[in-house]
Each structure stands twice: as C-alpha cells, then as structure tokens.
Amino acid sequence: MVRRLLRRLLLSLLVTVAAASAWAQPAGPVQTERAAFRVSVIASGLEHPWGLAFLPDGRMLVTERPGRVRLVSPDGALSPPLPGAPPVFARGQGGLHDVLLHRDFARTGLVYFCHAAEGAGGASTAISRGRLGEAGIEGLETIFTATPRTGGALHFGCRMVWDGEGFLHLSLGDRMRPDQSQDLGSHNGKTLRLTEDGRPAPGNPFAGREGALPEIWTLGHRNPQAMTVHPETGRIWVVDHGPRGGDEVNLLEAGANYGWPRATHGINYDGSTITPHRSLPGMVDPLWVWVPLSIAPSGAAFSFSAAFPAWRGDLLVGGLRERALVRLSMDGGRPVAEERIPLGERIRDVRVGPDGLIYLLTDSPRGAIWRLHPL
C-alpha cells in the first residue's frame, strides 16, 4: 500500500514538473549582448503552435499542428477552434503549419494555410485557402498540392511569404528522399513561386524545360522551416535544417541550386559522411552555417523595429534544439556573427508584430505565444 502511494505521489510530482516545464518562461529580465527584454505570455494552452498571422483589427490567427486554427484577442483570449480548417495529415512532423494573410486581406478576407495532406501514395505539402468569416473559415479550397506524395511523416518544410510582385513563395522539405532535392521533376526539397491561386508564376526559371515542374524557383534544400522577406531589399531568405550539423542560411536567387545532398556541412545522425563536398561548382554556398551541431531552425524574421534599435537589421531565428532565439548580426548584406539567447523552450516561429514587438511561438504540447518587451 505504501509503495503504491509513493508511486502515485511520484507520478503526480512528475506530471506537475512536466506541466510547469511546458509553461516555463524566463522569470525575469533577459540580458543579451546588445539589448535587454522581458517575456510576457500573450496566450497559452496551445498544442504545438506553428504559424502566426496578425489581423488588421489587432487579433491574431494561430495554427496548431494537430489541425486547429484559433483567433487570439489583443488581451490573449483564445477562441474555440475555428470551423472550416483544412483537414491535415497529423503524424510525425506533419499537420497544420504556416498561415499567411492574402496581401489584400482587408478586401478579400482570404487566408492561406500550408499543411501536410494525405492522398494516394502517401502525404505531401499542400496549400489551402479560405475566407475568414464570422462563422469560421469559409469556402476552403486546396489550391496547390506538391508531387510526388511519399510515405513517411518527416520534412514537409511549409513556410510561405509574398514577394514584392505579389507572388506566393513556398518552402518544401525533401520528405526524407534527399535525391529528390536535385530532381526538377519533384517539388520536394525546393522553393516554389506561385500565383495567388496556386498556379506557376510567370517567368519561373524552369518553366518550359522538359521534365521540370514549372512552379520551382530554387532547388537543393533539405527541410526549410524558416522563410522571411527582408523589409528593405525585398529579398527572400531561407533557413534550412541540416542533418547532424549543417543548418544553413540562404539568400534565394531564381534558379539557384543550394546543394543538398551533394554539398553540405552536415553529416548523418550515425556520424557517417553524406558527401565529401561542402561546396561544388554551380551550387550556391550558404551565407551562414551551424556546425558541428544543429540549432534546428524554425521561423525567422528581420528586426527593423524601433523597439529594439540595437538589433536593427539583424536576422532572428527560432531554435528548436537550442531552445533559444538566435540573433545573426548582419554586415554588408550577410551574417557575420551570432548570439544564442537561451529561453528554455523550443522556439517554433518568430514574428515582428505591428506594434514593433517580437512574438515567439513555443513548440510544446502546451505551447504559448510569447511577446518580448524591451527594457
């Protein structure tokens, strides 16, 4: 009887500790090399939140990987899951991922969702679009599905941004089929450039080439879960998951090949060599690489806010493995130094809000939206 009671008490203590860890946040000011801030919890109790979008009325849309979309009021109140969310393949790394407002959302009310979708042959990355209405998400339609579908539940990529011409850019992982990253007949391991309706954008670099898919913008990526637009130059940056080491920061150029798996700084998880090449002719070298261990990057944003003047122009990257916000100092249009800011939680997404403050999503079964306030 005593042993059973002790086991129950121990189990209760472990559950309490796990719950406290899931809600953990820095208790006091966080001092970094150039700035100090405090962290406030805007909303909590989210299951693996993945993407965040700011609405014109001050509310936020947040996705949860199991397949839910919620509204968050300015005071942090969470809505029930919105009806009409896209059905998702919620296994492994798959599920509901990024969310992006139409570039003229005030007129159209359209919202784009990147998610894993299942069909004949397995799962793939897809984009669905619907209108945010009073009753939820209305008129949902899938406007793009990557090919080929494959088995397994890893490496979907799934970040989206608009470029200055009004085209939609999407990042896709290699689906654990590395050779597909170099195959122009596969969407996997690429970034794509699409119209707002999900069709190939005019002027794409491989359009008309025999055997090449016309949506492809760049190739040679592994699992890019961070994509952001530089607010001054309009250039698109991608941060790609390496294997064991070899996470990369890349500046996208139309038609460029970023090497994976023929050239990489990373190695296999068992320590074996993937390739002897870190660089190859005709392939673009990363502007920054993390070795020997990965930070597991997800989510990125450039900081140009007056709230953090000492970080002006720096690239902020979420670190899943590092449980940190990683700041890359920029000089001459490229990273030159890094600072890792431990926060005690897996950081899934990084956004700069309309108020100029920095928002983070924590990747946890009881995840949260955090806001950084300068001191």
Return the CATH class: Mainly Beta
**Cα-atom Rg, whole angstroms?**
20 Å
Remind me, CATH topology? Neuraminidase
N-to-C SSE series?
Answer: HEEEEEEHEEEEEEEEEEEEEEEEEE
Count of folded domains: 1
Low-confidence stretches: 1-22
CATH architecture designation: 6 Propeller
Report the span from N to C terminus: 54 Å
Query: Reading side by side through the largest sheet, how are the strands ordered?
Result: 1-2-24-23-22
Q: Could you give the count of β-strands?
A: 24
Helix count from the secondary structure assignment: 2
* β-strand amount: 35-45%
| Coarse shape | globular
Proportion in helices: under 10%
Please identify the structural class as seen in this structure. mainly beta
Q: How many strands, which pairing sense, and closed or not: the largest β-sheet?
A: 5 strands, antiparallel
What name goes with the CATH superfamily? TolB, C-terminal domain
**What is the typical, i.e. mean, pLDDT?**
94
